Amino acid sequence: MRITPDRPRSQPGSPLQRPIRWPLAAGLVTGLCACTPDPSKLQVTYGPWSPLHEGSAPQGPVVPVSRVLTQGNGPRVEPGMMIEVNAVTTFGEKQVNVPARDKVRDLGRHWIYVAFDSDGLPDPGTMELKTAEDAAAKVFGAGGSRFAASFIGLPLGHKVTFGPRPDQTESRSIVGGLGVVPFGSFERYAGNKPMARDSGAPVYTKTPELDNETTLEIVRLCKGHAAQRLVTLQDTTEISIAQDIGRSHTTSQPRWMYLREARWTGTCNDGKAMHFDYGPVLVSPPPGRDVGLGISQLFGPWVMQAWQKIDLGVASGP
Prior knowledge:
single chain, mainly beta, ten-stranded antiparallel beta sheet, 4 helices, 33% strand
C-alpha cells in the first residue's frame, strides 16, 4: 500500500489547528505515581462500524473553471468520491522569490475528498462530540469546501485551471490546498503521525495580485463509502494516587477513554481498491457513561500507536 499526499481540511485559525492536548484521561495528572502499569491489561472494545453522515454540497457559487486544457471523456465526479489529481504550478513574474529554474513545478499526485459538513451542526470549538453526525462533520472533517465542490460534474481526464474563489477576500490567488490527508484534520494527523509532516501546496489562479497558476488533471476517481465506530479503552490496573503531601493510596477503580475512528473504502475506475483510515480521536463519553477516575498511563501510548498503524492510498499491484 503506498501513501499518496492530499490537501489539508481545516482553514487557518480553525479549532482543529490548535495543538493537541490530551485531557486528564490520557494520564497527564499531577500526583500520579511513577509506576508502570502493564499495557497488556488495557481493555479495548470496538463498536460496530456505522455510516458516516455527510451533508450536501455548499450553497452558492463554487470556484469557477478558468480554462479547460484537455477535455476529459470518462466518468464524472460525484459527491462522496475520492478523486486523485496531478498538479503543476507555474509561478509568474510577480513571484520574485522563485528562481527561474523553478518557475514550473510538478507537484505530483494528491487526493481530494468530495464531501461536506453535515447541515446545521454547531461550531466545533464549543460543541461536544458525541454522535456519529458530530464525528462525521467535525472530527473527521468533511470540509464543506467550495474548492472540492467545484469538481462535481467534471469528467476523468479533465485538465483545468481555476478562477478566483468567490468566498475568499484576503488571498484571491489561492483557490485551494493540496496536502497529505483528504479525510479528517491534517494538523491532527501530522501531530500524531510524524511521517505525515508535509507543508502541502496551494492551488493558484492568476489574479491582478499574483500571476501564478496551477493546472490540475483528474487522473483517478474512486467510489466508496465512509464509516465510523466508537473505541472504548478501559484500565483497571492498580495505580497509586497522591492524596496530599506525604500520603497516597492505591486503587484499581476503573477508568475509561472514549474515541472514534473512521475509514473510507472504495474501488477506483481502474479497478484498484483504495482506502483511508483516520483516528482514533478523543470524543466525549456516550450518554450515560463517564470516564470514571480519569487517570491512566496506558491511554496516551495506545492512541499514538494506533495512529502509527494508519494506512492510506491505493493498493499496489495490477
